Amino acid sequence: MNQPVEPKLVGADPKLAVADPKLAEPVEASAQTALLSRYDGAVMNTFGPPSRVFVRGEGVYLWDADGNRYLDLLSGLAVNALGHAHPQVLGAISAQLSTLGHVSNFFATPTQIALAERLVGFVTANAPDTQGRVFFTNSGTEANEAGFKISRMTGRTRLIAMDGAFHGRSLGALALTANPKYREPFEPLPGEVTFVPYGDVEALAAAVDHTVAAVIIEPIQGENGVIEPPDGFLAKAREITAAAGALLWLDEVQTGLGRCGDWLASTSSGVTADIVTFAKGLGNGFPIGACVATGAAASLLTPGTHGSTFGGNPVAAAAGLAVLAIIERDGLLARSVVAGEHLASAVLALDHPLIAAVRGRGLLRGIVLTKPIAASVARDALAAGFVINAPRPEVLRIAPPLIVTDAQLDEFVAALPGLLERAADIAGGAK
Description:
Blueprint: H1 31-42, E1 54-58, E2 61-64, E3 69-72, H2 75-78, H3 87-99, H4 110-123, E4 132-137, H5 140-152, E5 158-162, H6 171-175, H7 180-183, E6 192-196, H8 201-207, E7 212-217, H9 233-244, E8 247-251, E9 275-278, E10 289-294, H10 314-329, H11 332-349, E11 355-361, E12 364-369, H12 374-383, E13 386-387, E14 389-392, E15 395-398, H13 406-430
Parallel strand pairs: 3-13, 5-6, 5-7, 7-8, 8-9
Antiparallel strand pairs: 1-2, 2-3, 4-10, 9-10, 11-12, 12-15, 14-15
Helix pairs in contact: 3-10, 4-10, 11-13, 12-13
């Protein structure tokens, strides 16, 4: 097993604190280089070349195949809410797998039932007497596919989605995703989808009529650069959809389950949606998703209308229950708020000319830059031992495990000015 070592920076720059002068010396091909070569020959090129090969994780840290350590500030795209190799989650998975691993959905299991009850409770928090039911999946995309089918069962076919939206890569989820780069190779896509400006109440009201099956909204658009709508937008969306007899569908795949400081990022809006989709943080890395429907929508899918071989299997459900229990036990909803505010305040306190703002809630944050250098900053951050990403050319996304400490966040903030200046210098030199 690799032992922890300090992260290294290839091509060290004086502006960056973390460096290893020995990297200038000729070295033999690394284990990582060999693995990347094998990857290139065996794995479809749907994601581009991987930046690293990670072999181990513990808490908020990752280690690559060459033994370099990284502070994980992305959580596998907001998935590892409890960090890596959490002992209680591992214990729950192991115990369940040693007892009962899979039975198919011809049968039920206690973990499946218990997790469904918990998720319904979260979704109906603003209306506790509302009925709710769950369809379990293996991912957020699949959860959104289930939502798409529920919308079709209303007898209507039109859907309203938001500009800047991202809901997944399957054909149904892609039809609801607003990025032409993702959509165009696969058109024509299913459904009659109209996109309206995110957060624009007047545009939404003009688009929704009695032909609309559902309106799908992310409470915060993560892939679009961590963008929040204006206050009151979700409440207005609830009013508009209710008046037209359309479903309100909230995609909480990235924002839910503690990431933004509550079980649902939408809870504070006071609304109860007809459909809510979950995934990412629910299993802490174990594949699981869920589509929760409430009220009349909860009964629209009937036997034979949908299915999943692995969805809701007892091991995934046990992982989900363990994650929720730990978040609750350790006060991580409140911790997400405190840590997120600490990060935002520390970044803004840098008063750096390349930083325009910090967006988001809890531990889903977007650092908005004044120049389109985010991709370069993310690459240099990785070289310096920090895992972040750039969802937009001028935005850095930070979504660390909910267990991250203030001191760990401060390590990144201290390195950020050097990372920004290096990227700006490179961009300036390329002109």
